[in-house]
Structures are given as structure tokens and as C-alpha cells.
Amino acid sequence: MSPAERDGSSEGMGGLDRAAAILGAFDATHRELTLAALVARCGMPRSTTHRTADRMIKLGWLDKPKDRYRIGNRLFEISGLVPIRHELREAVLPFLQDLYNATRTTVQLGVLKGAEVLVVEKITGHQPMPMLSQVGGSIPAHCSALGRAILAYSDPDTVSGVLSAGLVPRTPRTLTTEVAVLRELAAIPHRGWAVDREEGNIGVNCVAAPLFGPLGDVVAALSVTGPTALVRADRIGPAVRLAAAAASRAYASRR
After folding, report:
1. pLDDT at 3
2. CA–CA separation, 85 vs 23, rounded Å?
3. Residue 225 pairs with which residues in a beta bridge?
4. Residue 235: CB partners within 8 Å, gap ≥ 6?
5. Contact 201, 228 (CB under 8 A)
6. Would the pTM count as exceeding 0.85?
7. How far is 138 from 11, CA to CA, in rounded Å?
8. Cβ-count burial of 27 within 10 angstroms (0-12 exposed, 13-18 middle, 19+ buried)?
């Protein structure tokens, strides 16, 4: 597309649309972007991108310490007011900390977002696992213990939506048929926790349990993730289930 065509295609965009396009250019693997990279990822003309980004810097939405743009501190401040972070995270965080102290490996809190799980909180301690998604990142629901713990208690339409989005394998161990995934989901209520056996990353296991709201509906899940040799479902599962039950009670009482 020529610059003229791109200029024409952006004329119908309002200021918020342009700002949203720029914010959408950033993700967990693109935390800082040059102007050229920002233009390429947001799909707007260079002049429009530069002008909009400058305005966002003045508002504190973006920051540009040198020659690269990054998300500004003002958005970080505002993000703390989002209910999912302000209410859910604050209610569950003490139990995540207890679970980390008990297992000494990475714990996470996630909520379902379409066919993926949004990581709301994470505690890694002194042994971080760089292959895992950061807070604010997403992981596929169908092959993650967090996602399965939520899906096992979700309505059929929600489960169907995740399955129809595609069961893309992340490792040779990923379950990629609807029958296999549904069989796994059916087993979760009986044992009380979900398991991901090296389906997201080879050498990494994950055990998760659901969190429920005051009306008994599933709202999130928490998990323990770590090396396969250390994270064994028969040993970790009961602790995860107890932490999730206690966190559910705390969250429900706040609501």
C-alpha cells in the first residue's frame, strides 16, 4: 500500500482509534518499538503515527526515553483500577504467596479471555521461568492447566468456542483432538485440579484449580508451574486445590 493510500485509509479513524492502533502494536515480545517498527505494526502512515505518538507521550500513555517508544507510566497507574486486577488480584494474592511458599516454584493467576487465558498475576521467586507468559500475556486455554481448570466448570458454549478456535499443538505432547480435550475436562471435577503435562513447554508441568465467585460461577484459576521432575500432580494437586478453595471464599466475601 502506498503512503497516499495509507493516508486515505486512516482519514476515517478517530483519535481514539489511532491511539488504540498504536497501543495494540505492543505486546509481551514487543515492549519497545522504534518509529519504523511502530509504523509497521500499527498499520498507519508514518506521519500519523508520529503525530499520534507524540500526543500520547504528552498524556503519559507512551514514553520515549531515547529512540524507542514504550507504554507510559500513566497507563500502569490506571491499570490498577481495573476490577479484575483491583478486586480479584487483591483477594487472591495472599493465597498465591502461601502457595509459592509451600511449593517454591512459579504460581500464576489467570482468567479466560476468548480462547486464551490472560495472566493476571505471577510469582516466580528467585528461579524465574522465561518461557512462561508474563503478567498481561496470554496462553492458549485448550492446552494449559489454567485454561482447563476454568473450562471444566464453564458452560458448553464457552467450551465450544475454545475448541472451535483451533487446537494448535505447542509441543508433541499437546492434546489436539476435541475428544481428548473433552475427556481431560471431564476428569477435572472429580480430582479437583487440572493438569498440563509438558503441553505448553517441554520439561514443564502445570497443575491448576478453579476459583469461584459468590454465585458459584467459575471466574479464574490459579496454578503451580515448574520443571516436570518437581511439579507432580499427585503431590502438588491437593495444595493447589486447597489454595484455590480458600481464595474462592476470600474473593466471594469481597463481592
Report:
1. 38
2. 19
3. 106, 206
4. none
5. no
6. no
7. 32
8. exposed
